[in-house]
Amino acid sequence: MSEKATTGGKLKHNIPTLVILIVSGAMCYAFPYFRSYYYDTYMEAFGFNDIQMGVLGSAYGSFAILAYFLGGFCADRWPAKNLLALSMLVSGVLGLALLAYPPFWVVFAIHAVWGITTILTFWDALVKALRTIASEDEQGRVFGLFEGGRGATNMIQSALILAAFGLISAKSGGKAGISMIIIIYAVIYILLGVLILLCYKEPEFKRETHAIVNVPQLKKVLKMPTTWLQSAIIFCSYAMCCSYFYVTPYAQEVFGATAVVSAACGYFSQYIRPIGCVVAGFAADRIGSSKVCAISFVVMILSTVGVLFTPGQMSMIWMLLISIAGIYASMYACQSMHFAIMEEGDYPHEYTGTAVAIITPIGYSVEAISSLVAGYCLATWDGAMGYKVFFGFLLALAVIGLICNIAWMNLTKAKRMELAAKRRAKKAA
């Protein structure tokens, strides 16, 4: 393999590594969240109550929030390969400990540590690794394939695990089914950790400081206007990603759809996700990541308007489906560009972790805010009006996101022209 390919050259030389990172990025969150999908069985198997189940989620979430702030600095201080492998191996071993069905305080501690191993030592290192396995004119493609691949991986693994759980629990009981899930996930985690060590060829790692936080580097990132624009773009687009499921009760309450049809409206998103992400990724490498993001915001705005103004009649639900399909495609297209646009922002690879440590917690903080806004809207306004006010809030954020995206494009015009020239030269070669 050429030095160029090894250090982040053409993506085609690093496809096996990309596949491993995709599966790792999808599976890393399986352990912390699978209890939610098998809630009653999990609670019965461990002998917990509803309060304890809620506390487990709080333990993971609390440590994860702190980890988002510190993870980027870890990614710039230690090699990504070591961090990613350590994350998967430790998470897998901790999962195996659940097979002993230990007391609550042990399970609580495991979930707290998962908040560290799936965020602090994983997420920012993962973003950095993805940037290094593709050249600068392939950033849209690598992140589009990553997000689309994560969606496809989750679809496949959840279906297979559910089928296996149903089979085992029918024969041997729910606890046996939970044990089976734990074993499968633990084996996958450990295998992925080993594969990362064996397959990911990381560029030569250069540590600029032995301090946990590289203060000069942090100051440079904080002074870059692109840091704050990227944070705003993520904030405004991710609001839709973590709120789209309100379409389900909206379709049922306003359009009179059955519970099955309403649920299908929500599940539909997972089938749109791989398509939206992959198409966006390849388009980004042709016309630029921020242009794809801008187009996605426009589609998101028009689709949200469609949801707001489609008459609430069952005979018009086909129009609602068209609108939500546009929302799903655009929100996932935007999500796949969240970190692809960093190349246009001209962030050196060695700054990736520090930049992500600032951008990620700000951008993703909307997940906590949007749920509060939704609760307030639905409690304050009755019926359809509550949903319409909330969708109006999401529409306003999408408009703000488009404005920030346009500002980004103006600010990064010189770098975008440079990248475009390289794309044309590459196509002509």
What does this structure look like?
This protein is an all-alpha fold. The protein has two domains: 3-199, Growth Hormone, Chain: A; 215-428, Growth Hormone, Chain: A, CATH 1.20.1250. 80% of the residues lie in helices and 0% in strands. The chain contains 20 helices and no strands. The two termini are 21 Å apart. The model is unreliable at 1-9 (pLDDT under 50).
List keywords for this structure.
Growth Hormone, Chain: A, mainly alpha, 429 residues, disordered N terminus, 20 helices, 80% helix
Provide a brief overview of the structure.
This protein has 429 residues and is mostly helical.
Mean pLDDT: 85
CATH topology assignment of the largest domain: Growth Hormone, Chain: A
| Fraction of helical residues | over 70%
Radius of gyration: 22 Å
Q: Main β-sheet: number of strands, strand sense, barrel status? A: none
Poorly predicted runs of 5 or more residues: 1-9
Please, how many domains? 2
Order of helices and strands: HHHHHHHHHHHHHHHHHHHH
Work out the number of β strands. 0
What's the CATH C level of the largest domain? Mainly Alpha
Number of helices: 20
What is the CATH homologous superfamily assignment of the largest domain? MFS general substrate transporter like domains
Query: What proportion of the residues form beta strands (DSSP E)?
Result: under 5%
N-C termini distance: 21 Å
**Second rung of CATH, namely the architecture of the largest domain:** Up-down Bundle
Structural class: mainly alpha
> Any idea what the shape is?
globular
